Structures are given as C-alpha cells and as structure tokens.
Amino acid sequence: MTLAHANPPVGRTSSVAPFTRNSLGAVRAALSDYTTSAGLSGGPDPNESHAAVLVPLCNVDGVPGVLLEVRGNLRSHPGEVRHADSSFLAAALREVHEEVGVPPDRIDVLGHLGPPERSLKGLHVWPYVGFVYPPGTASPDQGPDAPLPSLSIDSLVISQPEVAAVFHLPLSAFACQIRLKPSLFRASRPYWTIDVSDLVPRRVQTQGDIDHGHDLVERTVTEKLEVWGLTGWYLSLVMEAPGIRIRDTKG
Fold it and tell me: What pTM value is reported for the model?
C-alpha cells in the first residue's frame, strides 16, 4: 500500500457510491495483503507503551465516509492498552463503544491498516479499519453490490466532555482540492491535511493546544478545523485501499 502524493488521491470507484459488501471485501483483501507483506504478525515490544485506534468507515444518507471526533476538554489517548495481555483490537473497539456508543457487534472489522506509529505522547498506536452499521443491521441480507445500511449521526451517544462532537467526513472530501493541504507527517512523510470546518457544528468549542498525543481534529490559528497528524496520516493510507476510489473535484 503505497501513497502517491504528487496530486490529491484519485482512486478506483466513484466517491459518491455507498459502501457495499463487495467494496468492503476489496478493502479487507487489501489490508490482509498489506499485513502479510509488511510482516505485521509479530508481537509488540513489551517494553513500549501501546495504544490502538479504529478508522470507522460508514454510509450516512447513502454517502460513504469516515466517522471522526472533535476532541473535547479531556486529553486521554483513545484505546490506550495498559496491560501486556490486552488485545489491541479490543482496546480500539472499546474506545468506540465508550466514546460514541457503538458496540463491537455493530462493527465489521476489515483489518489492520499499517505498522504502529508513535504518537506525540510516545505511544505506539496500532490502527484498524472497520465498517459501522446502524442498530439492528450488522448482518444485512442484501446482494453484494447493494448499498449497505446508512448510519444516523443522531443515533450516536457521545461521551462528553472527552468528545465535543462527531461528524461524517465524506470520501469525496479527499479529492476536493480546496480542502486539501500538503503536509509532512512527523516532518518527513508527505500526506494531506483536510479542512473540515464546514462539516463540524459551529457551536462546538475546541481547545487550541496540541499536547494530546492523537492529533485528531484541531482548530488552527486561522480558526479552521483540520484533520491532521496521526489521524490524517492513517486516513491517507485508507484512501489508497481498493474498493475506495476517489473522483477528483474542485469543490
């Protein structure tokens, strides 16, 4: 899974097409191939501190995208694994349940995204990708190319004050040139930050500091809200997976 950064990502299927069983299968296969080729089956270093995070894909009103959080006043790291025998995946799923009220049985885990990256707090963060179903639809009896059920943002139960808001980032945003800004992850690897100012309710208040370790969504000095850092990097990786194709657009 290699990133191409010369231009905004343009992929394999229309970004307006909702996720289907077939498209999720393609993502699952790509993640499996990547895990095998990268040799990620080895265990973590027990001398290091670890955490885990889920990149939650979903359909909202028939539009494919990613669920993202605006962090609130608490700065604990999502999915921190405190015991050596804890499951990284279980930790990531537990955080989704605690922070937005989605239980593990409503998440179809598609695979491991890539090698762990070190957060600003020094944790090794293990990323996973999953698809979030609305209540009562985790095993839909539909054809392989039928749109999967859409999630209602209003159905989520947000844990405040740790989470200020949850919003849906459409896949089309990753090809919207006016949203994207080239940046360097950890000052060395190119990726795209994404302006999401218009997608987050204006009433949401966020802190201006960046000493929180997870780099989710932060308000910049120009009052924009951007997806950046570790989350921006992982989203860039997700956008390269087969089954997620982005069509270039100017707005």
Answer: 0.81
